Amino acid sequence: MLPQRKGEAMTHGEQDDNRDAQGSALPAEPINWSPIPDVGAGDDSWVLNLWRRGCREPALMFSAAYVLVAFLGLWSSAWFYHGFGISIADYLQASDYLVAGLRDPAYALIFAIGVLLAALVSWPEALRRRYPEYVADLRRRRWWARMVFPQARIMTWDGIGIHPITGVSMVVASFMLLGSAVYVQTKGELVREKGRGTPVRVHMLGDATPLPGEARLLGTSSAFVYLWWPAQQRAEAVPITSVRQVQGLRKSARNAKAPQPAPTASPTAR
Fold this sequence. Notes:
elongated; 9 helices; single chain
């Protein structure tokens, strides 16, 4: 092989050998695979990274929000039907997982409140990290700033090594899951104990008349109708293919008294 002259370009083989030699060298520091950023090492919050990526790509932000709301709907549905003795995961189809968060507007409301609460709670620490001189001056001049921007390590997330925004997001997400579970469990107790819910009359295929009694409609999926029978204290999942009609009943009509028949004139004696 001819010696390479000064200024002569390297061949492709020599470039590949050079890359292999560089790639075989071990990194100076081990790679941190933890999803929790190391505050002491100056790592940034993965929540902030996701937020910045979502701001650059709005479609990705809406997709992530939709997936999170769907997960919240599945979580809440599991707790709701668990109170009636129904394992909802055994009856769901693939399409039901995509629309689970859209069956009740409360899930989207809980998610929106959680996002706003996370932003409201984390803004003091975000302001402190972005403008440290301004916050320090504000603490000297305003008494309320010393309460909003505490300096005690025990009062900050740095004491446990978690980025403040990541820590706040984790706490708010936990409260969202807990709040949605309490909401659906309370809703189920009102159906079982107080007779709340949507009253319906069910007519099955092949039957000439509807089923006796009134049921409460718990919900539906792509293949089943979930009913609660207050008289028998029984819940059941009925296949949609076997249901002819589910008729909703108005509460005013149910509570109205049946009309009394008109009195007939007694026959006169002849």
